[in-house]
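in:
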């Protein structure tokens, strides 16, 4: 008999600033004949009874743990806030006590944790000024007591805001910064009013429209364009934003890496949105015991392939498996516990390796190979 669900796909939610997790308890799922809490005479099954090749999959929706820095307002009167975005940090703020701003840029969020296998999302950003969190997939795998980490490049990225298409006056400037595919990648902010030689640090612009100085911020990247190629010329230095005067602004930046001619158009990155918080994402990790290969897939595409350099047989540790963090100790800080914030829709572990990974909105583990399958689904009434 099949269960059929109609309507919106549900999930288990790990809210922003939570200590939530799921504990799949080892002791509750094994047979201890001697009743002595000694794993040497246990009769494990499922995940704990498996060794060798496996396929891990999860469908999830991560939240933005960066929040919006004060330099990222881009002329907006208030910061962007909702249930899927970490509040801005700073002194005397609860969000700063929960996860300090500096720790957010190196934070990893655990999807699945066993003492011998951890799959997590790792933030790859270095600031939060017009920069939501972006994530790569990180896999920690232990064979014979030796751990090795495997990381992809950034696979979950923030994208530019398209509200200007609706005639939003706040973004109604010159949008000539499109790439060869017609997608907006950069935003024109002004024209240089002098020639600047490589190595200089002062840049004078005649800005477009009524753009205020608050649209610029320290650490902001500046670009010049050659056809569809955009080259970064430097970043705005600390305290490097001058006041607007007759529509001109002076910026102090890191040393130019090229000559900039008079009349050159200068671009910045558009306002970025963490639109991934409204989408589902799929990750798969395949370990092949025959050559100790580790392949990581994102949304059906292979994004990392490597090998575990340790000889021996992989086996799951006979300890608790956790979803959402790496410890059941709720007093452990969010940073140390690698706290996950977001939603998880489905998760599975299968013995053996899948020959093909296909991204769909649901997982289909083979019944005979299933070691663990969790579906956090509800029926629409």
């Amino acid at each position: 008999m099949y269960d059929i669900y109609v309507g919106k796909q549900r999930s288990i939610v790990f809210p922003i600033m939570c200590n939530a997790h799921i504990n799949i308890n080892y002791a509750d799922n094994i047979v201890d004949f001697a009743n002595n809490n000694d794993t040497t005479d246990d009769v494990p099954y499922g995940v704990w009874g498996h060794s060798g090749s496996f396929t891990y999959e999860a469908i999830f929706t991560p939240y933005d743990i960066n929040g919006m820095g004060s330099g990222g307002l881009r002329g907006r009167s208030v910061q962007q806030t909702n249930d899927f975005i970490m509040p801005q940090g700073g002194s005397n703020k609860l969000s700063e006590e929960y996860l300090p701003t500096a720790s957010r840029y190196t934070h990893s969020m655990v999807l699945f944790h066993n003492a011998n296998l951890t799959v997590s999302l790792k933030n790859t950003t270095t600031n939060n000024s017009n920069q939501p969190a972006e994530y790569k997939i990180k896999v920690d795998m232990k064979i014979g007591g030796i751990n090795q980490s495997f990381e992809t490049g950034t696979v979950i990225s923030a994208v530019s805001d398209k509200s200007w298409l609706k005639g939003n006056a706040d973004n109604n400037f010159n949008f000539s910064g499109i790439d060869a595919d017609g997608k907006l990648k950069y935003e024109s902010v002004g024209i240089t009013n002098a020639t600047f030689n490589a190595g200089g640090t002062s840049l004078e612009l005649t800005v477009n429209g009524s753009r205020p100085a608050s649209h610029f911020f320290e650490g902001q990247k500046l670009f010049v364009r050659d056809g569809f190629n955009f080259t970064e010329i430097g970043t705005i230095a600390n305290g490097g934003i001058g006041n607007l005067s007759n529509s001109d602004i002076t910026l102090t930046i890191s040393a130019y890496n090229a000559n900039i001619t008079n009349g050159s158009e200068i671009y910045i990155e558009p306002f970025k949105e963490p639109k991934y918080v409204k989408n589902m994402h799929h990750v798969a990790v395949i370990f092949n015991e025959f050559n100790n290969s580790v392949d990581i897939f994102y949304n059906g595409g292979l994004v990392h392939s490597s090998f575990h350099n340790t000889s021996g047989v992989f086996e799951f540790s006979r300890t608790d498996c956790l979803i959402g963090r790496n410890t059941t100790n709720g007093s452990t800080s969010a940073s140390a516990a690698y706290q996950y914030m977001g939603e998880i829709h489905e998760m599975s572990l299968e013995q053996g390796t899948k020959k093909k990974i296909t991204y769909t909105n649901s997982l289909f583990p083979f019944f005979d190979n299933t070691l663990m399958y969790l579906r956090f689904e509800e029926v629409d009434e």
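note: Residues 162-173 have pLDDT under 50 and may be disordered.
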